[in-house]
């Protein structure tokens, strides 16, 4: 019996050759929809930042309102490391499916409730407090999504095509951003400012409710990954059901791997939020591009991202994860400042070309990262190791990226400040990647930790 009462098939017959393709497709759909909802929410919040600032904060300087909005966005990441510990432990003990089916329910529910919040004009600062509370719940539950989906897909995918399959996770995040930016652009086109501030901004958050129910349904009707089923069968055959402590195990036995994974994840955290979430605001506030055009440029960038991420996932299967991730670090170090400087000219077509080049560089990192993190840890602690390293990086550097970018520009007076910040983070990630091992050929199904001296344990370092 599984933890939710259903009966799982024996590991040896869980996925037969005749049904494997259909099962992998269902696993892909289950992984896709949760990340889609998460990033649809982030896109809606980021692209509606100016409107949300006016709704939830007192009238003041527009830059203060904007920084307040991004401060709430950043604070919503405070619970990510806590969520990583909780969801990672649940995912490693009770199963990937169990954790993912609950995380999507809580995440979509908290996002849905944002649509019903009153504004500052009705209850004063209480509106901002309620917004922050729901963002905190959303951040806690979302911390199980990316890591869980990446772990789930990596364990289902054929070894030789693991990078291609697992890059569906970043593709789903970009698709969510694209859907969010497209909807916000459509709302701005259809509604005047007064309508947007009174009710139009609520529409994207309302959509999270039905999407979450659909995602939950898909996940609870899917078998757990072959690697998790095989691990449970071996552990129970050896010593019966055990009360494992995945988070303590991953920190005590795989601390070096966690540190490397955190360092590598920092580039994704800053690059993704800076280039795909904050960019419309940057174009509007620093370069003077109109709201509609800036959102259209970023939507085109997202299309380029989605198109190239699968190609990069395929390349990671061919040349290895280290080569792809190191190449992305070097490209960001060399090109971030020049590309931001070129965009200062304000030519729409030049800006679009720069954004598309940024998208390709970012996918070299993002299309590889989820697979790299899943391959870095043994099955017993894979969810925990992935979630802890990835979400800690996002809590410290990802959620704060729009706020820091706005602050750095205000302090230095230079619109190139975000590019310098991105280059510095890329340099740190490069240092982590240089000492990281190549594990592209790892057999995730057989990679099971048996003790502190076992080959499986030592091989994870």
Itemize the secondary structure elements and their pairings.
Elements: H1 20-47, H2 49-56, H3 62-75, H4 80-93, H5 96-114, H6 120-123, H7 126-142, H8 145-156, H9 162-166, H10 168-190, H11 193-198, H12 203-206, H13 208-220, H14 226-239, H15 246-253, H16 255-277, H17 279-287, H18 291-319, H19 321-343, H20 348-375, H21 382-398, H22 401-412, H23 417-434, H24 455-459
Describe this structure in words.
With 461 residues, this protein is mainly alpha-helical. The chain has one domain: MFS general substrate transporter like domains (Growth Hormone, Chain: A). The chain is 77% helix and 0% strand. It has helices spanning 20-47, 49-56, 62-75, 80-93, 96-114, 120-123, 126-142, 145-156, 162-166, 168-190, 193-198, 203-206, 208-220, 226-239, 246-253, 255-277, 279-287, 291-319, 321-343, 348-375, 382-398, 401-412, 417-434, 455-459. The longest helix has 29 residues, at 291-319. May be a proton symporter involved in the uptake of osmolytes such as proline and glycine betaine. Its main location: membrane. Keywords: Cell membrane, Membrane, Symport, Transmembrane, Transmembrane helix, Transport. Belongs to the major facilitator superfamily. Metabolite:H+ Symporter (MHS) family (TC 2.A.1.6) family. The chain crosses the membrane at residues 69-90, 102-134, 163-187, 199-218, 258-280, 292-312, 324-342, 348-374, 386-410, 416-436.
* Derived structural class: mainly alpha
Query: What would CATH call the class?
Result: Mainly Alpha
CATH architecture: Up-down Bundle
Strand content: under 5%
| Helix-strand string | HHHHHHHHHHHHHHHHHHHHHHHH
Query: End-to-end distance, in Å?
Result: 34 Å
**Overall 3D shape:** globular
Transmembrane segments: 69-90, 102-134, 163-187, 199-218, 258-280, 292-312, 324-342, 348-374, 386-410, 416-436
Pfam families: MFS_1
Protein name: Putative proline/betaine transporter
GO molecular function, one term: symporter activity
């Amino acid at each position: 019996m599984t933890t939710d009462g259903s009966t799982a098939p024996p590991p040896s017959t869980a996925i037969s050759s005749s049904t494997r393709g259909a099962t992998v497709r269902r696993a892909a759909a289950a992984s896709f929809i949760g990340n889609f909802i998460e990033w649809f929410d982030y896109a809606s919040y980021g692209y509606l930042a100016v409107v949300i600032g006016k709704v939830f904060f007192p009238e003041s300087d527009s830059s203060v309102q904007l920084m307040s909005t991004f401060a709430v966005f950043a604070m919503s990441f405070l619970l990510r490391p806590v969520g990583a510990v909780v969801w990672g432990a649940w995912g490693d003990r009770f199963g990937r499916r169990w954790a993912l089916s609950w995380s999507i329910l809580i995440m979509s529910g908290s996002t849905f409730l944002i649509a019903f919040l009153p504004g500052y004009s009705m209850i004063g600062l209480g509106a901002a407090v309620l917004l922050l509370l729901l963002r905190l719940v959303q951040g806690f539950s979302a911390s199980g999504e990316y890591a869980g989906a990446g772990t789930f897909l990596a364990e289902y995918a054929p070894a030789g095509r693991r990078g291609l399959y697992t890059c569906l996770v970043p593709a789903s995040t970009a698709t969510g951003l694209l859907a969010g930016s497209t909807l916000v652009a459509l709302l701005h086109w259809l509604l005047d400012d007064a309508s947007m501030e009174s009710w139009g901004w609520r529409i994207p958050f309302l959509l999270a409710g039905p999407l979450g129910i659909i995602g939950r349904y898909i996940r609870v009707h899917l078998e757990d990954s072959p690697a998790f089923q095989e691990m449970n069968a071996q552990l129970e055959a050896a010593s019966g059901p055990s009360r494992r402590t995945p988070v303590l195990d991953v920190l005590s036995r795989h601390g070096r791997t966690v540190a490397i994974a955190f360092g590598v994840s920092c580039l994704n955290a800053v690059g993704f939020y800076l280039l795909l979430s904050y960019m419309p605001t940057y174009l509007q506030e620093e370069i003077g591009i109109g709201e509609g055009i800036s959102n259209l440029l970023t939507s085109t960038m997202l299309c380029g991202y989605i198109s190239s991420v699968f190609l990069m996932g395929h390349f990671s299967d061919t040349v290895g994860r280290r080569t792809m991730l190191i190449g992305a670090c070097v490209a960001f170090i060399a090109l971030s400042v020049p590309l931001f400087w070129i965009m200062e000219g304000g030519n729409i077509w030049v800006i679009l070309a720069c954004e598309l080049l940024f998208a390709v560089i970012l996918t070299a990192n993002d299309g590889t990262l989820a697979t790299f993190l899943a391959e870095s840890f043994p099955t017993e602690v894979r969810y925990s190791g992935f979630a802890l390293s990835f979400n800690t990086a996002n809590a410290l550097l990802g959620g704060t990226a729009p706020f820091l970018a706005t602050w750095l520009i205000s302090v230095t007076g230079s619109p190139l400040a975000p590019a310098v910040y991105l280059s510095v983070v890329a340099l740190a990630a490069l240092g982590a990647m240089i000492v990281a091992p190549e594990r592209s050929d790892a057999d995730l199904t057989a990679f099971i930790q048996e003790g502190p001296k076992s080959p499986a344990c030592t091989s994870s370092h």
